[in-house]
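Retro notes (design track)

What went well: tokenization of the new backbones is finally stable.
What didn't: we kept losing track of which sequence belonged to which structure.
Fix going forward: every design gets posted as structure first, then sequence, in one message. First example under the new rule, 421 residues:
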């Protein structure tokens, strides 16, 4: 198994490019199921999760040509509607094929994703919404079996809780449903906006894009026609992670190909910690101070502070001067990085869903274990600032979502090597 060896306590400098957003690319790939026409996607990140979803499409009978940051997907030859456990268990986001398969083929079977390290992550809201649109759903043998022989119909969906994946599944299902679907309490993430834009460019009428109420007028069973290639938006979580790398190492570094609006919540928090920024068109330079101030964070849905950046900011807070409070509101168990950060010398106390992070003078390299994708990047950040050598194990989590992490950090001057046990 691969691990990363990082010699820390070094300044970073220079510039890197941010890749396309994994979480935007996944629903876009799933949405290609809504058409029998080929579509080219550009600016895909080179990460395992993307390969996993493309493999799933291939298993369903699609023609997929994937090279570098581009993929050409032709779902005209798609025959199977069964998303098997072997793939879905590798990546929860595979559940995103449920809505498009059901609305296009009138039936499908998708393995239940199950829980994961950061919490239970049920899909009850996805299923309830599809039922309201006329789907008959049963859970059997670990699979969601869904049927809607005459197609789905539009409905008014009120989500009890804001769900990114649930909103995406309903958007895709609604695109080919009969009539109007109104989604109340919809997610507003940039990834949702990209999906809505993709649907509207293909001729689906979508109103309220980027707001909490989205209305979709379905095509009534007609498959969609793509008109142009789709360029995946920049990854705001990857950008945030590198800003944290700048902050924790007291460095000045530049990120290119970013969307500043998407990372505003992170910029605000880093500013409150004493960092300054120079912002240009699609680029941002962080100027980090010698001494970081503590920060208070409560995770929330977009445009609030993203749960996917909670672990990385906790790593930065470990070296701030004073006590930071970090409250996790979205996932019940997203603090697996706490004990590992403490192994590096951090002083973090957990009470319920709040972590009190008392800043320490220094962190010290040690062997640590990655537990989930973003927790892994928090350990890498801490290692960049720690004295001595840190080995971060189980980095397959990182490979799921960070494109060329060690290459980009190396370009910024970090001492980081991938090794095999
Ligand atoms: C997506 C992101 C993930 C991010 C999360 C929250 C992708 C591929 N993943 O995950 O990186 O951390 O949004 O921003 O885009 N919930 C239910 N029932 C449901 C669905 C969700 O109770 O049917 C709960 C979840 O357990 C969680 C909350 O709603 O507590 C938000 O989850 P959701 O927005 O659905 O997250 P994902 O789409 O899985």
């Amino acid at each position: 198994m691969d691990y990363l060896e990082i010699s820390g306590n070094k300044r970073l400098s220079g510039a890197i490019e941010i890749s396309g957003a994994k979480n935007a690319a996944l629903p876009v790939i799933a949405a290609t199921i809504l058409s029998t026409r080929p579509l080219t996607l550009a600016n895909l990140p080179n990460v395992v999760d993307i390969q996993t979803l493309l493999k799933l499409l291939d298993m369903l009978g699609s023609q997929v040509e994937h090279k570098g940051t581009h993929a050409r997907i032709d779902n005209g030859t798609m025959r199977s509607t069964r998303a098997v456990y072997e793939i879905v268990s590798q990546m929860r986001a595979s559940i995103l094929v449920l809505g498009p398969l059901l609305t296009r083929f009138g039936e499908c079977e998708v393995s239940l994703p199950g829980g994961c390290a950061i919490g239970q992550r049920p899909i009850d809201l996805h299923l309830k919404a599809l039922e309201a649109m006329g789907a008959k759903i049963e859970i059997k043998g670990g699979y969601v079996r869904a049927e809607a022989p005459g197609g789905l119909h539009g409905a008014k969906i009120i989500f009890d809780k804001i769900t990114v994946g649930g909103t995406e599944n309903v958007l895709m299902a609604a695109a080919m449903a009969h009539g109007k679907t109104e989604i109340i309490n919809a997610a507003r993430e940039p990834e949702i906006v990209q999906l809505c834009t993709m649907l509207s460019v293909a001729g689906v009428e979508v109103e309220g894009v980027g707001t909490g109420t989205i209305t979709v007028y379905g095509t009534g069973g007609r498959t969609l026609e793509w008109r142009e290639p789709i360029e995946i938006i920049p990854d705001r979580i990857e950008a945030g992670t590198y800003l944290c790398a700048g902050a924790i190492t007291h460095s000045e570094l530049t990120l290119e190909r970013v969307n500043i609006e998407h990372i505003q919540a992170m910029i605000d928090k880093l500013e409150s910690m004493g960092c300054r920024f120079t912002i240009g068109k699609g680029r941002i330079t962080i100027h980090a101070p010698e001494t970081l101030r503590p920060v208070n964070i409560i995770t929330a849905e977009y445009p609030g502070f993203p749960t996917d950046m909670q672990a990385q900011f906790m790593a930065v807070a470990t070296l701030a001067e004073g006590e930071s409070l970090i409250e996790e509101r979205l996932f019940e168990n997203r603090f697996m990085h706490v004990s590992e950060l403490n192994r590096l010398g951090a002083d973090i106390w957990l009470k319920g869903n709040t972590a009190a992070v008392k800043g320490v003078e220094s962190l010290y390299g040690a062997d640590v274990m990655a537990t989930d994708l973003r927790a892994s990047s928090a350990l890498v950040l801490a290692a960049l600032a720690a004295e001595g050598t840190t080995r971060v194990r189980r980095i397959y989590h990182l490979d799921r979502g960070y494109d060329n992490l060690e290459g980009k950090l190396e370009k910024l001057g970090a001492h980081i090597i991938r090794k095999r046990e």
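Added context from the reviewer: The two ends are 6 Å apart (CA to CA).
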